[in-house]
Amino acid sequence: xxxxxxxxxxxxxxxxxxxxxxxxxxxxxxxxxxxxxxxxxxxxxxxxxxxxxxxxxxxxxxxxxxxxxxxxxxxxxxxxxxxxxxxxxxxxxxxxxxxxxxxxxxxxxxxxxxxxxxxxxxxxxxxxxxxxxxxxxxxxxxxxxxxxxxxxxxxxxxxxxxxxxxxxxxxxxxxxxxxxxxxxxxxxxxxxxxxxxxxxxxxxxxxxxxxxxxxxxxxxxxxxxxxxxxxxxxxxxxxxxxxxx
Length: 245
Ligand code: SF4
Ligand code: SF4
Hints:
- The protein is an alpha+beta fold.
- It is about 20% helix and about 15% strand.
- The protein contains eight helices and eight strands, in the order H-H-E-E-E-H-H-E-H-E-H-E-E-H-E-H.
- One iron/sulfur cluster binds near residues 151 and 155.
């Protein structure tokens, strides 16, 4: 028996062997074209972020279906990448790396928690601890962007990078190239960032896996060949955005 015993067997909605509805993963449409699923009902337990995303995707599908468009033509999200430079050494984000380890959420003392089954065990961060934890943010939404045409290959960025993640070298096969970087790039699942257009014909290779997004390379670069840019993704919403297609 599936999790939807109240759905009549002749409703046209097919279920898999786990009792979950058979769905198109991008449109969330079931085998009954007028029925869409989302959240835990779609693919089993996930978190609330997935549930909200399913809601948006299903809303786009429903809207397209109602106006007679193909639900499988999915509108692309909006994307933007904007420089965060505000001055020679000023960025619009806090770029100082911190060496703090993760701060643990304080717990109620065990003796107290065991006495009262209703007492919350996790006490949460106080403002000071929350501030310290937030300062550990690695600014993953801020990307290093390289313009090879502006680079004079002075190696200043290579010298200042605290993680040795920038190398100027001859190009080569990726597997071999990974072994001759300033610090060998050991994680094959993380793509290398390759910049070309250099006057010497070499390439700039950056190991994204270890970058701290500290912006020191962009601060040191005398020509502005490095920039720190914030990457925005604006997810498509139903109605006007999907009608633009
Ligand atoms: S942002 Fe910081 S860690 Fe990343 S490449 Fe530049 S200097 Fe190195
Ligand atoms: S500091 Fe700038 S100009 Fe110098 S090597 Fe790095 S990117 Fe090129």
